[in-house]
Specification:
Blueprint (H helix, E strand, L loop, with lengths): L6 H14 L3 H22 L3 H14 L22
Helix pairs in contact: 1-2
Length: 84
């Protein structure tokens, strides 16, 4: 049985309940399930932040059209490395 005695928690749950049309119990259960899923997923991945960023970059790159390439901006700089 859940009895919310914290005024802030009750207020947040009530506001979310009013927005979604769900009762307080359903709102709290859904919020806890979503939070638990995120936390479990984050911890289960066992990957470092660097690995997750590199994976994201790879997924992003794969979604780019094949004719789009990263510019090295060499045309903007002279041989001395200064802007033209």
């Amino acid at each position: 049985m859940l009895n919310i005695k914290n005024h802030r928690a009750h207020d947040l749950a009530s506001r979310l309940s009013a927005l979604t049309g769900q009762n307080l119990t359903a709102v709290v259960v859904k919020a806890l399930e979503e939070s638990l899923e995120r936390e479990t997923s984050r911890r289960d991945s066992g990957k470092s932040k660097k690995e997750r960023i590199l994976e994201f970059a790879d997924r992003f790159r794969k979604g780019m059209p094949p004719d789009v390439r990263s510019a090295d901006h060499a045309d903007m700089y002279g041989e001395d490395g200064l802007p033209k």
